[in-house]
Backbone:
């Protein structure tokens, strides 16, 4: 370990790190624990980014809906596509708690489940119970499924945005992560 003063190393000593003797995990268990917590953290980060994108899309959809309801000259098939898209979005948005900050979704909120499992596992330095490991795998699968669905919905939104744009209705679709 280096002691640095004004950007200059003034002393250097080796440093030995010892595991806390109260933590009853061996090195392999500790590595597995760290991998699970880091995976949950990364899933939560990616899910939160998607939730932010979906929230921006939600706001853009509100504006497009106002324009359409206000009498914009939108072809009937495009208006039908927009309504179908709204239904698909309504089915997906609770899985991310969108718009952000909105409660709800309950057990269907995949992002919230990942955060809860992450909190439960990382709260203690011990090998997670079988129930928590099962909850980890379930929450991960649920969020991966929701992310895949959201990616597909974003692709549909881009195509719909172009069709709406031709009718003079703006619906900006947020870019990828």
Residues:
């Amino acid at each position: 370990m280096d002691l640095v003063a004004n950007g200059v190393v003034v002393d250097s000593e080796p440093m030995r790190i010892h595991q806390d003797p109260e933590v009853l995990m061996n090195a392999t268990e500790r590595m597995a624990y760290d991998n699970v917590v880091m995976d949950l953290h990364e899933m939560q980060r990616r899910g939160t980014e998607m939730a932010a994108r979906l929230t921006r899309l939600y706001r853009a959809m509100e504006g497009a809906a106002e324009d359409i309801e206000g009498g914009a000259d939108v072809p009937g098939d495009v208006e039908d596509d927009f309504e179908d898209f709204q239904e698909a979005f309504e089915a997906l948005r609770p899985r991310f708690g969108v718009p952000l900050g909105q409660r709800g979704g309950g057990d269907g909120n995949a992002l919230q489940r990942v955060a809860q499992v992450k909190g439960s596992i990382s709260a203690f330095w011990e090998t997670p119970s079988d129930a928590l490991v099962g909850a980890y795998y379930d929450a991960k699968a649920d969020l991966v499924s929701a992310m895949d669905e959201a990616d597909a919905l974003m692709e549909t939104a881009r195509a719909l945005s172009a069709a709406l744009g031709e009718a003079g209705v703006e619906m900006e679709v947020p870019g990828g992560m």
In short: The radius of gyration is 23 Å. The chain has one domain: 25-166. The mean pLDDT is 90. The longest strand covers residues 8-12.
